[in-house]
Design a protein that fits this description.
292 residues; Rossmann fold; four-stranded antiparallel β-sheet; globular; binds adenosine-5'-diphosphate
Length: 292
């Protein structure tokens, strides 16, 4: 499925949350990466049909989404930022409820729930009340409900919020397996969520898309711009005011500082291998118009 986002804007009163956002998605994982308030949820909610755009259009395989909304919804799986559960619902009740909302045929419901519960490792907890699930279990239940209709496109809004590192890695693997022949849009402000699995990254800030490129291209583009250098704590306090610092490690009586900079920042600075986190910092500084 090809999804084209064309010049989408969204105003909340006088607040412009999205300002002419355009990009295209086909199979694979797409990371929507940006700081809090960038407009990620707004865009996701527009794609999921929860909010209307103020301008622009979304095309599904070249057809305006409005003209094929029913069909599109049938192929969509959506995990919102937070899920509400009826207090008396077990995980099983919840999945049955969502299956009914999605119009899944009766004879397909139980086998699907069984299979998905295995995939998200909730088989032994399905009869427990989901309000008592841990954060990770709630997220896994959320993924299972999003996958109930076997969607072609899966939209995940900050899916790893509240997960511990172990759960985050498992979640990432699950998404990666699912995305083999489908499209996943994953919004996050956590770089490591998409570092390993997103083939393309869309950087968004203040309602605008900066660049959309393969995740590797973002990293390659700052080759030769990431440096390691040593300085004292006092020097660092001063230095960080007008430089991009992506990491600091104490080494003896000095700090080893990782700096993202176009120019060599000091005579003894040595070039380091760039990461997506370095690229994220570089890109957002550039988008803010700050000197790098
Ligand atoms: P993100 O998901 O990247 O954190 P959001 O899409 O939630 O960003 O928000 C983008 C901007 O729109 C923010 O400035 C936010 O305060 C504003 N915003 C979001 N939802 C509403 C709303 N319902 N009413 C008014 N402003 C909103």
């Amino acid at each position: 499925m090809k999804l084209t986002i064309q010049n989408i804007s969204k105003n909340y009163g006088k607040k412009r949350a999205l300002n002419g956002v355009s990009f295209e998605m086909e199979n694979g994982v797409y990371g929507l990466l940006g700081p809090n308030g960038a407009g990620k949820s707004t865009l996701i909610r527009i794609l999921a049909g929860v909010t209307k755009a103020s301008g622009g259009e979304v095309l599904v395989n070249g057809k305006n989404k409005k003209s094929c909304d029913r069909e599109f919804r049938a192929t969509l799986g959506y995990l919102p930022q937070s899920l509400d559960f009826y207090p008396e619902f077990s995980g099983l009740d919840y999945l049955r409820f969502v299956a009914a909302l999605k119009g899944i045929k009766n004879d397909e419901v139980e086998p699907k729930i069984k299979k998905l519960a295995e995939q998200v490792r909730l088989t032994h907890d399905l009869h427990r009340k989901c309000v008592n699930y841990s954060g990770g279990m709630k997220r896994r239940l959320g993924i299972a409900q999003a996958l109930l209709n076997d969607p072609e496109i899966l939209i995940l809004d900050e899916p790893t919020a509240g997960l511990d590192p172990h759960e985050r890695i498992k979640f990432r693997n699950l998404v990666s397996i699912f995305s083999r022949d489908r499209t996943v849009l994953l919004s996050t402000h956590i770089v490591s969520d998409i570092d390993c699995i997103a083939k393309e990254t869309v950087m968004i800030k203040d309602g605008r898309v900066g660049r959309m490129e393969s995740t590797q291209s973002f990293v390659d583009a700052i080759g030769g711009k990431v440096w390691l250098m040593k300085m004292t704590v006092d020097e660092l306090v001063e230095y960080q005011n007008d430089h991009i610092i992506s990491n600091v490690i104490p080494t003896g009586d000095k700090m080893e500082v990782r700096v993202v900079s176009d120019a060599k920042p000091a005579a003894d600075a040595v070039v380091a291998m760039p990461t997506l986190e370095d690229a994220y910092l570089y890109e957002f500084n550039a988008m803010a118009g700050d000197v790098v």
